């Protein structure tokens, strides 16, 4: 494993993150499955990883720090995905995050009533499955794999050079 360069691993993480974001937008806009608020939050780590990897290619000065940030980001992704999975399975109660709308639009009681009448996507309702698994389940698996990979790179950074 040490014969591969960090650059190769970062390219793989970049491709995985890009595929995850493109897939999420395809499922939402082409297939018409609306995401819940937690699904939208679970996209953030992938976008951040894409930005960090691009920054790494622009400036190689802080590669070790960027790897650490990627590790933290995917730990956050794993925690959010596990929490979302727990809500889907009924282990946890839905939080207020699941029902939040854009707070800047709520200015009057009429606006509040209007938002209550619109149907929002519940975090416990799975609207899209692949092979019987929710996208949250796949996010847990991907996050775990990336955490193990990044942890290995972080611990053995000097050997990869």
CATH topology-level name? Bromodomain-like
What is the beta-strand fraction?
under 5%
Backbone CA Rg: 18 Å
Order of helices and strands: HHHHHEEHH
Describe the structure.
With 161 residues, the protein is mainly α. It has one domain (6-160): Bromodomain-like. It contains seven helices and two strands. The chain has helices spanning 6-30, 37-41, 44-58, 63-89, 109-117, 135-155, 157-160, and strands spanning 129-130, 133-134. It has a two-stranded antiparallel sheet with strand order 1-2. Helix 1 packs antiparallel against helix 3 (44-58), helix 3 runs antiparallel to helix 4 and helix 4 (63-89) packs antiparallel against helix 6 (135-155). The longest helix has 27 residues, at 63-89. The radius of gyration is 18 Å and the shape is elongated. The model has no long low-confidence stretch (mean pLDDT 79).
Label this structure with key terms.
Bromodomain-like, two-stranded antiparallel ribbon, mainly alpha, 66% helix, elongated, 2 strands, 161 residues
């Amino acid at each position: 494993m040490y014969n591969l360069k960090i650059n190769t691993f970062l390219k793989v993480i970049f491709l995985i993150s890009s595929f995850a974001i493109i897939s999420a937008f395809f499922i939402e806009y082409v297939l018409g499955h609306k995401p819940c608020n937690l699904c939208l939050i679970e996209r953030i780590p992938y976008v951040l990883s894409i930005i960090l990897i691009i920054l790494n290619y622009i400036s190689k000065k802080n590669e070790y720090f960027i790897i650490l940030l990627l590790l933290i980001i995917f730990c956050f992704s794993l925690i959010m995905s596990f929490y979302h999975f727990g809500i889907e399975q009924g282990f946890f109660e839905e939080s207020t995050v699941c029902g939040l709308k854009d707070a800047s639009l709520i200015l009057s009681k009429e606006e509040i009533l209007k938002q209550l009448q619109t149907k929002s996507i519940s975090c416990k309702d799975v609207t899209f499955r692949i092979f019987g698994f929710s996208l949250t389940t796949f996010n847990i698996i991907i996050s775990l794999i990336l955490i193990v990979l990044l942890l290995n790179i972080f611990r053995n950074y000097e050997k990869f050079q």
